[in-house]
Amino acid sequence: MKMIKVEDAIGTMLSHDVTQIIPGKFKGRAFKKGHIIRAEDIEKLLSIGKDNVYVWEPKEGELHENDAAKRISDLVVGEGVDTAEEIKEGKIDFFAARDGLLKIDKENLFKLNSLGEIIVSTLHNNTPIKKGEKIGATRVIPLIIDENKIIEAEEVIKNSIISVKEITPKKVVVITTGNELYYGRIKDAFLPIIEKKLNEYGSSVLNKIILPDDKDRINLEIKKAIEEGADMIICTGGMSVDPDDVTPNAIKECGAKLVVYGSPVLPGAMFLLAYHEDMPILGVPSCAMYSKRTVLDLVLPRLLADEKLTLNDIVAYGHGGLCLDCNICNFPHCSFGK
């Protein structure tokens, strides 16, 4: 790469994108890499502070920022991710190729960004994503980078870092408990909320049962739902530690393996998760009726993406597990659960 005065650059080829900034109005590319400079370009180049331009003179063992970014992109992108067709100012953007759950290999992302001169930026791991949504980007810092740096990255990173996991529709049985509901004293507020959240991910309620606070009857209906082929069971109501709240014990005694009862998430502390083989059984606390977002919003997309959550997965939500109940909810693009 050779630097020459703008006035002497007519007929030469730009080796990099030239950015123009108009404060408060515009920031973007004024001239594209590969542009052949014309006489009429000189005035504009000078007006944006370019007294000199750089002409690309390839040398063995060196890579232009665009070529390096393409190799990094090929290294980090996995299933369910599209890359921008055009490289702008040495940067490649990544987009979701489908609706799903964003998965980031945080350990390898840290390793890659620790190498120096290479950056990859992403949204948070486990963020529910819509097709076409921007989820990350990469670029190298210098205009020209030693190819050995890229080779080092390719040797360190053996698996993709960014992917979008597919969420598949599920048949869900909802079991709502409470004497006040069973005897018609109040209207069930749980079901419309659960249905709405399931519908966001293409799933639906297969069956809905309202039961009194009767451990044996709850246990029986859970077993029945299992036998009839439900993909997931969500139990609502009766999840606190009051003596007449029997839902947790009913779940524990149905033959399922308990993962956790109690989560470091607010709202959602009294959340329960168990598995009957690979089928999740959830105990959802009453906060789901009146809070916009709760622990259910954090675990549901992961379960619908067929992740089998562990105690460690739930415990990890303590960092970021406080919902601020903002007047305008921007979930999932907020701090909750991150």
From TrEMBL:
Residues 173-305 form the MoaB/Mog domain. Pathway: Cofactor biosynthesis; molybdopterin biosynthesis. It is an enzyme of class 2 (transferase). One of its GO terms (biological process) is Mo-molybdopterin cofactor biosynthetic process. Coiled coil: none annotated. It comes from the Bacteria. Signal peptide: none annotated. GO terms for molecular function: metal ion binding; molybdopterin molybdotransferase activity. Its EC number is 2.10.1.1. Keywords: Magnesium, Metal-binding, Molybdenum, Molybdenum cofactor biosynthesis, Transferase. Its cofactor is Mg(2+). It catalyses: adenylyl-molybdopterin + molybdate = Mo-molybdopterin + AMP + H(+). It holds the Pfam family MoCF_biosynth. GO terms for cellular component: cytosol. Belongs to the MoeA family. Catalyzes the insertion of molybdate into adenylated molybdopterin with the concomitant release of AMP. This is Molybdopterin molybdenumtransferase. It comes from Clostridium gasigenes.
